[in-house]
Description:
By secondary structure, the protein is an alpha/beta fold. It has a single domain, classed as Spore Coat Polysaccharide Biosynthesis Protein SpsA, Chain A (Alpha-Beta Complex). Helices cover 43% and strands 19% of the residues. It contains 9 helices and 7 strands; from the N terminus they run βαβαβαβαβαβααβαα. It has helices at 29-44, 63-73, 88-97, 115-126, 145-161, 179-185, 194-204, 228-243, 246-256; strands at 17-25, 50-57, 77-82, 101-106, 132-139, 175-178, 208-215. A 7-stranded mixed β-sheet has the order 3-2-1-4-6-5-7, with helices on both faces. Strand 2, helix 2 (63-73) and strand 3 form a beta-alpha-beta unit. 41% of the residues are buried.
Amino acid sequence: xxxxxxxxxxxETHTSLAVSVVLPCYNEASCLKTTVPxxxxxxxxxxxxxxxxLVNNGSTDDSGQVIDELAATNPAVRKATVKINRGQGLGxxxxxxxxxxxxxxxxxADGQVLPEDVVRVYLAAKNAPQGxxxxxxxxxxxxxxxxxxxxxxxxxxxxxxxxGMPSSDVNANPKFLPAEQFRRMDLVSDxxxxxxxxxxxxxxxxxxxxxxxxxxxxxEAGHSHVRGxxxxxxFKNMLLYxxxxxxxxxxxxVRER
Length: 257
């Protein structure tokens, strides 16, 4: 397996790896030693050259040290760093910007998606005859009734504000797409709205959407970082994006290229 340079932080040099997988890590020290080796083993079985970019997303626990240990023992693992946590989206963007694969994607670090399912979503993007956005669609979720209700309302409002939204599970990841299409998106969201931004821009770019049904597993360890403030953030950014100008400005910039 052609491996990426060890412990290379925020390296934006692009090479010919088949796939880059980004894991944003915010206080995930308790699960990384379990989830990352399993994910690496699953991708090794594909026979494709890959890298796993672990982003220490402003963690206050030992995540950075654990990432260093994993990078030291597996040449396919790289590290990127966000010094101050500003949200899930910034962690994902930082990793994607450092990626060196022809196909790039991301998944949460907590083990809620089985490694085999991450690979299935990647292969859906790899084997597509043209550029696609491949993503998960969750079944048997373990978030609880409150999260399920919030998710239902969020996805319904997305469809109302952005007619034609082709998915009823906007925030589901992993998501994978060709690296050149990712760069065209010029992603800007630092928070959870990044998931919706990717979906909206993929639709505008006429990328085919491929959804792969996966099971949603309990977290490997730790706890969810979605709190009341994050929920308010979801809805605020949805409205700002729709009516505040970023969506129109990006579409204009695409037309002018």
